Sequence to fold (105 residues):
Amino acid sequence: MTTRLAVVGAGSMGAQIAQQAALHGIDVALQDTDEAQLRKARDSNQGHLARRVEKGRLSSSDAQAALDRVRLTTDLHEAVADAELVIEAVFEDLAVKRSIFGECW
Fold:
């Protein structure tokens, strides 16, 4: 089982992928070039998890543990350095996608 995941792109899809992985015990590096987008992703995930806690679907300690498993970074190399799996979730721009893959591999 993968225990270290990097998600490149902290938009709606990337944030949700990171959250779901963290809920299943996976340590996640969520990377984006925009610090504001990373904060937005963290805040969104906190809200989703808080609603689960309010509805009794998740304990507050499990929610906090999931939040703690997601590390935010703007550094692409740092995010992917020790990842066992990398998921690219950036917006649909082929030039950006090629740049990401070119930079890391």
Remarks:
- Residues 18 and 28 are 6 Å apart (CA to CA).
- The two ends are 23 Å apart (CA to CA).
- The longest helix spans residues 35-54.
